[in-house]
């Protein structure tokens, strides 16, 4: 057993050293349970793909000044027709080395809508500092996957959301293929846009250990109608592309988190909301809570709005880390 841990430590050390690109073979473990209704099945049919094996390249960070230590690259399960965008990029924020034997937990982080992803990067860095390997997925058209300055609208928006959901789920299996990672303790965290993506992803199957959703929710159509700032901007872009009324409702329904929320384990799901959020109104969070059958003590309601709740990041971090470190019941 000691020799096995020694081998894992050597492999992990080679990756952390950033000397060369490492390659690992992974396989999709996507395994949706039977749907409870025709609507749920239709949603799954629009989001799932045929599982297959794929190669994961682990490249050293491009700059020594970067807060992440490596970048994972692998093919997206969904083809957008853009070769650059269709290669998923995941920033690996590695937990500090220690002498403790055993595999370490990991968390897949899904960022907000800001192009520089500051909140996603902040969470990833903080998780890693607490001994949890953090993997920040760059969603379609972000970061290393971006090839233009225009954000997708209309049908392209739907494609980007479908692709993002699939990419996040496949990231779980890419992470599980790495040395030093405990495949039974890979959790999922998403903020704002990332929270909506993570919510729907978590409803596909039980691939993630625990799920932490921040300033996000469900009932996307209503949120777009009443939400301000980022929500209003997305509504404007979709309206300009001809998506209004029932056409807009039908578009958002394809990736509506509440359709799959009942498939998540409410004991392993946590929702963090801002009481005075004007981007994602509290009604959106309550819609997801109800659909998921979430208990009151799994819905943390914080004072403040969509932006000012950032002051509670230390509190949220402590809560998430404690949940991850707990032994499974």
From TrEMBL:
It comes from the Bacteria. Gene3D superfamilies: alpha/beta hydrolase (3.40.50.1820). SUPFAM superfamilies: alpha/beta-Hydrolases. InterPro entries: AB_hydrolase_fold, FrsA_esterase. Keywords: Hydrolase. GO terms for molecular function: carboxylic ester hydrolase activity. The keyword Acetylation does not apply. This is Esterase. It comes from Caulifigura coniformis. The lineage of its organism: Bacteria, Pseudomonadati, Planctomycetota, Planctomycetia, Planctomycetales.
């Amino acid at each position: 057993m000691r020799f096995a841990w020694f081998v894992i430590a050597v492999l992990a050390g080679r990756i952390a050293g950033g000397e060369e690109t490492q390659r690992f073979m992974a396989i999709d473990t996507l395994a949706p349970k039977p749907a409870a209704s025709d609507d749920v099945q239709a949603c799954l049919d629009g989001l799932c793909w045929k599982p297959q094996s794929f190669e994961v390249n682990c490249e050293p960070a491009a700059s020594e000044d970067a807060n992440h230590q490596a970048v994972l690259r692998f093919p997206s399960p969904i083809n957008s027709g853009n070769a650059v965008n269709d290669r998923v990029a995941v920033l690996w924020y590695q937990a500090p080395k220690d002498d403790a034997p055993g595999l370490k937990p990991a968390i897949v982080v899904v960022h907000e809508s800001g192009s520089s992803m500051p909140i996603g990067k902040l969470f990833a860095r903080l998780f890693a500092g607490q001994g949890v390997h953090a993997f920040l997925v760059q969603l379609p058209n972000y970061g290393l996957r971006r090839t233009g300055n225009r954000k997708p609208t209309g049908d392209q928006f739907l494609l980007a959301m479908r692709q993002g959901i699939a990419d996040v789920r496949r990231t779980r299996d890419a992470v599980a293929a790495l040395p030093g990672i405990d495949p039974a303790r890979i959790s999922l965290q998403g903020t704002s846009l990332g929270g909506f993506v993570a919510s729907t992803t978590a409803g596909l199957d039980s691939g993630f250990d625990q799920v932490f959703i921040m300033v996000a929710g469900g009932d996307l159509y209503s949120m777009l109608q009443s939400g301000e700032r980022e929500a209003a901007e997305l509504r404007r872009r979709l309206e300009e592309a001809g998506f209004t009324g029932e056409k807009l409702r039908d578009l958002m329904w394809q990736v509506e988190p509440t359709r799959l929320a009942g498939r998540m384990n409410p004991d392993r799901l946590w929702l963090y909301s801002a009481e005075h959020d004007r981007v994602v109104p509290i009604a959106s969070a309550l819609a997801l809570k109800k659909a998921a059958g979430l208990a009151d003590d799994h819905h943390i309601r914080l004072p403040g709005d969509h932006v000012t709740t950032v002051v509670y990041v230390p509190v949220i971090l402590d809560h998430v880390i404690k949940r991850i470190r707990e032994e499974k019941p």
